[in-house]
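Aim 2, interim progress: modelling of the glutamic acid-bound target.
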Amino acid sequence: MDYNYLAELLFPNITTLPAEFEEKYPPRILPEGAKVTRFAPSPTGFVHFGSLFPVLVSERLAHQSGGVFYLRIEDTDSKREVVGAETDIIRAYAAFGIAFDEGVTLDGEHGDYGPYRQSERTHIYQTYAKQLVREGKAYPCFCTAEELDAIRQEQESIKAVTGYYGPWAKYRDAGIKEIEALLKDGEPFVLRFRSEGSSARKIKFKDLVRGSIEITENDIDHVLLKSDGVPTYHFAHAVDDHLMRTTHVVRGEEWLSSLPFHLQLFSALGFKPPKYLHIAQLMKKEGDSKKKLSKRDNSAALSYYRGAGYISECVVEYVMTLLNSNYEEWRMANPDADLDEFKFSVGKMSASGSLFDFDKLNDVSKNTLSRLSAEKVYSYALDYAQEFDPSFAQVLKSDPDYAKRILAIGRGGKKPRKDLTVMRDVKPYMSFFYDEYFALETDYPEGFDKKDIRDALSRFIDAFDIADTQEVWFEKIKEISSELGFCPEVKLYKKNPTAYKGHVGDVCMFLRIAITGRTNSPDIYEVMQILGADRVKARIFAEIQRLAG
Ligand code: GLU
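Predicted structure of the complex, ligand included:
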């Protein structure tokens, strides 16, 4: 067979040669050891939370090594494509602080290795396809859907493995005359790969996460170009990963079964394959067993987390704890360090994958939030409220300094307060600071005389001076306690409780309830300082009146 002749017959309009693209997209000039990684989603309209794992690994590997991380849109399957999905993908990851150096972006494409949308690269794929035909490594197949179905039925009836391979591959050895005649009749064809693999042999292969694995060779003559000339994902991605000079491919383990075919493709095309990291599917606990985090779970969509009020930093932090077994230990030793300072290591990734757990996410979220500055929490809270609670956003914006002072309570020390897990917690946490939300949410505990409570509040008002230091302020409360028959020292009270009506802590509690409406609040002195003298007095007066009524 004259393969050159066949190649011209099949692709008369393709005049470019692979060498031209090799020259147009030369090896990248990067520092020694720099990794080039990519995220290559199909725009199907659903951004899975699990995708954050390969994305973060790819991003870390590239950026930690001075390399490049790019976004390629794999849109060769127009049937699955959803309008707007591409923008959604870019926005979804941007919201998690993940930036692509190259590829498709909201304002066009960046980078010298594009186009980065597969739908715009057809002539490149066809150039390589034509070359494979020249080398006898690909051939046209004119089978109709009915013929393929008949082959499958026959295979099933004799219990043979189904598929287009070896003796079943009807057009694998078709003669040039037959091909010419079919083409002349305008019969559509797909281009198939001529596999030299055998199901009786295995390939040995080293995955950077899973270690050495053996997989059965591919003997199927898979489709490279569909009848409209559009490539299949398999073919397109091999050409792209090569021409975009990808060094490391991080993707889900569901692609592992295609790997023997992918490696065959790289070899047939004369490309050096990238290194692979196949990540296990994200599982979640269900009772005592584990199950896949499926699309039907609310929490499977990346967008769910923002709506639920998780901030991107916390989610990323959580994912990092799952991705690298030593991350949590590092974080404990370096509570304030930037994530960039952590040395991400492929060797610390678990081959068996990760188990998603909301309790753990909440825990990480709480800790991460407690370490952020009030300024940052304010901006996250405002951002969230603007989308999900506009009236609270107005309140936050009405006096940013006031809001930041509230959020600064208990921050910055060795043991920061941990009141917030998600942004939805911010409003209930702060609400009593705002008159429009303030309400008495609790009653005074039983066993105290209303008159004593009223008296304590009145005397406090008489003595109150916002300029008092915490010490002076507390001395005054102790005095009031003594005057009303409450013990000024808790220890003393405990020795002889029947001698008193209560102790100084109870008096503080009266104040706390009157001022915050709750039994639990941050340090009440600090709360008063932020509320200011007028609000403190107004609330206490109102409470005295209520108690008198
Ligand atoms: N386009 C494929 C997907 O949607 C990417 C597979 C790969 O990363 O090679 O998952």
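The first strand starts at residue 36 and ends at 39. The chain is about 45% helix and 10% strand.
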